[in-house]
Design a protein that fits this description.
alpha+beta; binds zinc ion; 5 helices; five-stranded antiparallel β-sheet; 314 residues
Length: 314
């Protein structure tokens, strides 16, 4: 296997420092498919644990094709730090989600320049993966076309959300939606929680990527583990907001099943010291995403359920 490392320039800071995206190309030197895997368009979304595992695996087991790895897709979002927290979801200059600049423009804003370089790599692939993390969450796949169901099944992440990015204009400048338009099948995987190391989640996504690579004949099927029997898809979710500014503690853990009228979370209100009030579930579902804080203003998102009556096994 031949490995080529390349720094792709996207611009300069006012100090004169180059802004570069580091790309690895792992070439088996045997003709085959090309896979593009991107991580960290949003600063603080620590998914590179998976790429470390994957790199080590491919060094030993690659049999055909190429894998292009971009471990840190955004040289600006990772610099957006405040104390110990990397706040890399939105561009602080433009106020815009960093994943809404695709397909990009080499003469546009910094976000569009970054997107143009990334999209230039991704659109050449036979299959592309965009790795993210989501607040505090269980791992889940996101797929944007029903025609990708066989890829979802092959990957075998336990839960997978369908978002019709073509119909929903707020997604039209994501990498996934632009790859759909370019004819490149693709998945997004939310690999777990922000700025964390969750060994089971790393393992689940790592195994999923290995199965996708086996499907594309880049590695052998016998070098992968079988997908779990239950792979589920869903499209409906319910968001719960804080009714008032308060400290909030959850009554449930990520991945728990929730039934109507069960306690979901507890308010600890400074206007009512000593009294704890509960928020009850209004849906049957699975707790799949929570906010990474105990501190809530009125109306803030506290958690999301994926709805039980909408879950299908595939
Ligand atoms: Zn993200």
């Amino acid at each position: 296997m031949k490995v080529t490392k390349e720094n792709l320039n996207v611009g300069y800071t006012p100090m004169g420092t180059p802004l570069e995206i580091l790309k690895y190309e792992l070439d088996s030197e045997v003709p085959g498919k090309t896979v593009y895997i991107q991580s960290g368009i949003h600063g603080g979304e620590v998914t590179q644990w998976i790429l470390h595992e994957l790199y080590h695996f491919l060094e030993r087991k690659m049999i055909s094709g190429k894998v292009v790895l971009v471990p840190c897709a955004n040289p600006v979002s990772w610099t957006q730090r405040a104390y110990y927290s990397t706040n890399g979801k939105f561009d602080f200059y433009m106020g815009k989600d960093w994943n809404r600049n695709f397909p990009g423009n080499p003469e546009g804003s910094m976000g569009e320049r970054i997107a143009a370089v990334l999209f230039g790599l991704a659109k050449q692939a036979d299959f592309a993966l965009d790795l993210h993390t989501s607040r505090h969450s269980i791992p889940f796949g996101i797929f944007s076309r029903q025609t990708y169901l066989s890829w979802v099944k092959t990957a075998g992440v336990s839960y997978n959300q369908f978002i019709d990015m073509g119909a929903n204009s707020s997604y039209k400048n994501t990498l996934n939606a632009c790859l759909d338009d370019a004819g490149v099948p693709n998945l997004c995987i939310e690999c777990g929680s922000h700025d964390s190391y969750e060994a089971d989640n790393v393992q689940e996504v790592y195994e999923a990527i290995r199965r996708l690579l086996a499907e594309l004949k880049i590695v052998r099927a016998e070098d992968t583990r079988k997908a779990p029997d239950k792979v589920r898809i869903f499209s409906k979710t319910a968001k719960y907001h804080a009714r008032k500014g308060s400290l909030i503690r959850l009554a449930k853990s990520l991945g728990d099943e929730v039934r109507v009228s069960e306690d979901l979370f507890y308010y600890f209100d400074n206007n009512d010291l000593g009294k704890i009030t509960s928020e009850k579930a209004r849906h049957n579902g699975i707790l799949f995403k929570t906010s990474p804080t105990y501190i809530y203003w009125s109306g803030d998102d506290v958690l999301q359920l994926l709805l039980q009556d909408d879950v299908q096994e595939i």
